Every structure is written in structure tokens, then in C-alpha cells.
Amino acid sequence: MISQVYPRACLRACSRVFPQLPRTKTGKPSSSTRRPVSQWHPQTNTQLRNRLRPLPRLPAHQQIRHKTFRAAARDLYKEYPLSVSLASFCIITACLGLIYANYVYQSYIIGEFSAYPEPIARLLRRALFYSNHDVQPENAVKYYTKALDLAKEMGLDPLSDEILGVKFQLASFLEKQVHQPKLAIDVLERVKAHCVAWIEEFGGLERQRGKRTRVLGQVVRVSVKLGELYASPEVMETEHAEESLVWAVTTLLKEQERREREGVMEGEGEWIGAEEIGGALESLANHYESRSQHYLATPLYLQAVSLISPRNCHAVTLMTNLSASLSQQLTSSSPYEPPVDRAALTSNARTWAQKALETASAIQPPDRTAECDEGCAVAMHNLGEIAEMDGNIAEARRRYVEAESLSKAIGFGEGVKNSRERLRFLKDR
Fold it and tell me: What is the model's pLDDT at position 331?
């Protein structure tokens, strides 16, 4: 039905537009009556002419001219200088931000864990996220523990730097973020016990010389850290602190002495550097100072000074500590303490304080830091105390004034407070 109606409708529409042409007997249009299409219907002719008529031309100032990109940008900047500058700045900033984000992702998120298998690296990324960004101690400890358990299942060396680093990171998180130094102590004590047991069992093997050096260095650092944690105000176990620090210093010096006596064996590798050894000696000396055992702290400070570079501002701090330790030694009140010469101690204390000032003045930027200035202020204060002990009140007052002035100039509040207290004491005398 549809196929018959549609052609008929088309024919009716065409008959209204085109007139019926005369036809021959065969049904074809007569050739004598053929006309151009334009003469078939006047209305059709008009419509075709209107459609083929060209469009009107725009005025010259409205015509579109094709410009180069540089010319178009220059014209746009001339018309909207502020907007174009702001848009350019935003685009450049966004591009630099994307580049920096990609650098951070590749360097710190991907590259930081490139030494670990991907399953362990994935757990460590989550642990660090809950440790540093969205701080959730329970989740952080959970993922650290899962990473260590997975490393054990995969057969990774538990004493490798990578796995020990995870344990150290966990201990640091427990200490600083969770504020639980006792939990950090538990982690580090297990690490220390494991390392010591391996050294005693396998450290003597020739093929394990390099690993022994590395593990022994790590366990010494752990022992020094344990001494600091045991001595912290939250724990205050001074006996355990002294035990850990003495073990670390003794192990350091024994290994150093063995290498000097026997020489470095093949495959052993480098031992802990001189400045790091000096740091361990200083930690033990500070512990003795906190317990007023100055006669034990003094030789440790002296040895630490001999191991540090004179171009290091920390050498100034060590010299001031040595000066204070010498000046605070009193006449022996215990049979276990050696007898002391008060005049000799005072003279040595003054010498080391002056040497601290000379060392600080010789250090120039970029080696010079704020520690040099604070060390100078402390050394001046120590010279004032030494002069006061000798009964030279005028010299003591002058040194205290210098120490106060320098402390005020560098923003060293503790130095200002201590110097003012001594000046008030001398004023009342």
C-alpha cells in the first residue's frame, strides 16, 4: 500500500511545478515543444535566480583577514595587556606545576621505593601516607608490619639496608609522631639483638667481611640512638642509657684500633667516619655531664675535638663544652674520682674557651652557621665564669656584658638570660 501511494504523491507534486508537455503517440514528449528548464515555469526561474545570486560583500573594515599567530597574539596583547599577561602567567605556572608534580612523583614516590619489590613498595607507600600526610598511627604501624612480614615471606635479607631502613623509619615514627619512645626502644632493641647475634655467628667468615662492617656500623648507630632514647625525659633510664652509649663507644674504638693494628682486610670496606665517631663520643660525654661526672666527660670531649674538622662550627660547640667540663670539676669528693689541680683546670678551661673564639672567627661563609655565633656567646660566658672563679670581678663583668650583647644580636635567648643572671649576681656583691 505504501509503495503505491508514495510515487503517486510525488507525481502530483511534480505536476504542480512543471506543466504537462505535449506527447507523441509513443508517449514521449514532442521534440518540437521542448523548452529550456527556465521557461517551464516562471516562478521556478525566479527562485533559481534568487538562490544563485552572490552574497553581498562586507565593508573593508569588517572583512576577515588571515593573520599569522605572532601578529594575532601581538594585536591581542595590545588590546588586552593585563588579561593576556595574567592568562600567560597562569598557563606557564600550570605547566611548571605539572612538571614539578611529575618530578616529585617519579623521584620520591616511585624512585624512593625502587629498591623494593612492588608488593612491598605498595605497602610502604601506604605506611608513609598514614605517617606523614593523613596521620593515623594504627594504620601506619599496620602497613609497616605488613611490609616487614611480606619481606620475610619473600626471603629478603632482614639485615639489608632496605629492610633495616624500614625498621628505623617505624622507630622514628613511634618516637616523633606517636610520642612513644618506649615503643621505639622495643623496635631498636630487637634490631640490635638480631644484628649482634648475626655478627657473633657469621661475622668471622671471610665471605661476610663486607656485610660485617656494614651491620656493625648500623648496630653502633642503633646503640647511640638507644642511649638518647633511654635518657629522654619520657623514659629517664640513665643506667640503660649509659650502658648503650658505653657499648657503642667501646665497639667503635675497638674496631678502629683493630684496623689500625691489623690493617683493613680485603672486602671489609670503609668503617665509620671520624666525625661520626666523634658524635658517639660526644653523646657519651653529654650523658656524663648530665650526671655531673665531669672528669669522665672531659677526655671524651677532648677526643671528639681531635676528630672533627676545625672548619666545622660544631668544633666550636665541642670546645666550649670541654671548657665548661674542665671549669666545673671540683676537688675530688669520692675515692673513685682522681685528684684534681684547681689552678691547672682553670687554666685549661680558659685556654679552650679562647680557642673556641679563635676557631669561630676563622670560619667564614658558607661554612659558618648560627652554631658558630651561639658557640662564641657560650665561650664568652664561660670566660666570665672562669674570671669570677679567679676573683677577677671586673673581667667577669666585662665578659658577661659581651656575651649578653652578642646573644641579643643573634637572638640567642638562653645566652641573654644566663648572662643577665650572672650580672645581677655580681651587682649584688
Answer: 46
